[in-house]
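Fold this sequence, please.
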Amino acid sequence: NQQKHRLDMAREQQISAFLRSDGHQLELTLEGNSQTDDVLTLQFIHATRADFDHSVQLKTLGKGRYGATSPGLPAGNWYLRLQSADMSWEIRARVQTGEKFQTRLSSDEL
């Protein structure tokens, strides 16, 4: 399974991230032994409505920090999936969003 392999790669490299949204901007801090990518892909997957799903390109701000405009998600339960540019690793989280939210993404199974 490719997803399991990407999670295993993230676990081996001790990759995790902290994501924060103020309702307008997303800011992500990446930690671990990964080489720094210029762009990371963050997917917002709605728990029950696939038509609400979004994908955002986070651009590097330097020193393990990334940013993007928030997609303006409706409040609800979301699964988050962050992937490297080459799709060699991914980390995940589950979050209940409102206008503002924060969460930690990791290689732990949800």
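Helices lie at 2-12. The first strand starts at residue 16 and ends at 21.
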